Sequence to fold (302 residues):
Amino acid sequence: MSTSSNLSSEPEFTPSTGFTPSTVAATFLPPEHPAPVSIPATPRSRQRTQQYRTLQAACIVQTAEQLSARVSERFPQAGLRTVADELQMVAEEAIRTCHRIRRPLYTARVLGLSLLAGLVAALIAIGLQVRWLANQDLFEAEHFVTTLEAGLGATFFLGAIMVFLISLERRAKRERLLVAMRELRALAHIVDMHQLTKDPESIHRHVPTKSSPRRSLTTFLLGRYLDYCSEMLSLISKIGALYVQEFPDPVALDAADQLFTLTNGLSRRIWQKIMILDQAVNDPAGQPGELKTVLSPGERGT
Fold:
């Protein structure tokens, strides 16, 4: 019964149907090596992938605003709050600075094109002068040398001025960017100064002297304070990277790398303090009950 049913289900190869064994095999049997299916990228997916290939200035500003709000809520009377507000202002100014760097310097470009036109006109005038002297009966070698020397001197002078004006735009943008980089370096050192006296060991084994700074932070607050300082240093580095993204100049790239090295080194020192603080929390010789209450998992958040 099964054999007859299988035979009845097979297609009949009649001239009227037009089927052949090859067409039936190509239609019903799977290919040995199927062709790969290419899925075209949609505009939405392409936009989603490209937004993670460049730094977004608006996202950096939003992160700086959120960090400033967190610091002001946690430490309303601390000087770190003022530094966080200043970092937010620097992030907002970075957007305007990037726009100015991206904008062409039309004055230098117009002057450079004008001098280029003058250089071409000078070369044409030299050629016409030499041709005119060659057609004269009184043409002498000394006249030719004098004319050629004067023309080449004027050409060299105009070319030097043209090169100066062409490089003027890049040098002006570079100077503006380096000024912004110096401000970021100074801000990074200011953040480091605020965490300089935050000693994690002084919470449990502190013997103050007459000149010792006032220490009023608990274990949890000291950990949050150090975390905020580390986040500020990271944002400073990202703002520097945002500048060179808009102006990939070799000197600017070196300045951004130096800024990254500086903030990374300062942040590493802060995290050494955080590790010492965590070790002090987990030390059985301390006050485990109180410290575990302060550093509960729910309080390790923002």
